Amino acid sequence: MRHSWLQPFVLLAILLVATVAFACPDCATSQVVKASVLGEGFWSHLVMLVVPFLLIGALSAFLYRIGLPSRGMKP
Amino acid sequence: MASTPRHQGAIISAGVLLGTGLGGFVDGILLHQLLQWHNMLSSRLPPTDLVTMKVNMVWDGLFHAFTWMVTAIGVGLLWRAGKRSEVPWSTRTFVGSLSLGWGAFNVVEGLIDHHLLGIHHVHPGANQLAWDVGFLLFGALLVGAGGALIRAGRKDTRPRGGALPSHPRERLAAGMSPLPLG
Fold this sequence. Notes:
The complex is a heterodimer of chains A (about 80) and B (about 180). Chain A has about 80 residues and is mainly α. Chain A contains 3 helices and no strands.
């Protein structure tokens, strides 16, 4: 088939729309959840979530530059 | 070839990020989703009804999003390291870095989120401290094993796609068996 590559994208788009519709973004429960997530404490929770990743990123950058300290071996 | 320039750090940094990502997915899939433990805000907002469960689910989703980003960056760094001839393509170094990354993330996350801030615990309930300490010990074990493997991998100098050493002495120096197997 000439345009067979298009079919997976069309299917994906349909599934995406269907998923969003079923997720009910405007129903009462979702509005309460949204308000709770984005309300008070959002930024502090986000910082708490991100800090471990930032520390691991810093460790990764440090190990890129320095490597592990040698233990009785010449680097 | 002992005189070959070595840059072990490139593969270590990629491995640490990939280990963090893969370990984070084990955490997210096994603990958060399958066992329904370790939800992100479960100490502040215990998931006891639909709304609180969904709020925790959103924060778990954000955790997965950051885990995915770390994994993607790790794949990028590994891809770049594989194209550099001065980077030794060592299984021990890579597996050790994966273990180090997974363990370090568990230790950092455990210390900050479980013990310092107390926003959640591994398995909330009567024995939560035991579970939290076990999580930390598992992380420390992974860090120790990873560090040992990385140190052992310092003997590996062969770049990606490079020929295997044929002389028994070179093979031994590279941490391989003295005679080719198979």
